[in-house]
Amino acid sequence: MTKAIRLDQPTYYQVLGIEEDAEPDEATEAFQGIQEAYEVLSDPERRSFYDEELESLRNPHPLPSPPVCSAAQDPPFILASTCTSDTYSSFPAPA
């Protein structure tokens, strides 16, 4: 038995985000998406990981510029002698 339908609450179609003439497989797919979201968001550890991933997608860190080194020296010694210690300073600090 289903609970009484009330006009002041979203319909089940609205809850699933589907049209009223949607095929049953659309309801299944929408429900599976909601179920997956619930499983992640109800677990603090998984939610934290999800939030971090979402934040990094929304605000990607720009890639640092490649080091500027002089090519005037012999190839084996170029990087060792002409790149400064702050070459990688634009990388974010480890978390």
UniProtKB/TrEMBL annotation:
<protein>
    <recommendedName>
        <fullName>J domain-containing protein</fullName>
    </recommendedName>
</protein>
<dbReference type="InterPro" id="IPR018253">
    <property type="entry name" value="DnaJ_domain_CS"/>
</dbReference>
<dbReference type="InterPro" id="IPR001623">
    <property type="entry name" value="DnaJ_domain"/>
</dbReference>
<feature type="domain" description="J">
    <location>
        <begin position="1"/>
        <end position="54"/>
    </location>
</feature>
<dbReference type="Pfam" id="PF00226">
    <property type="entry name" value="DnaJ"/>
</dbReference>
<dbReference type="InterPro" id="IPR036869">
    <property type="entry name" value="J_dom_sf"/>
</dbReference>
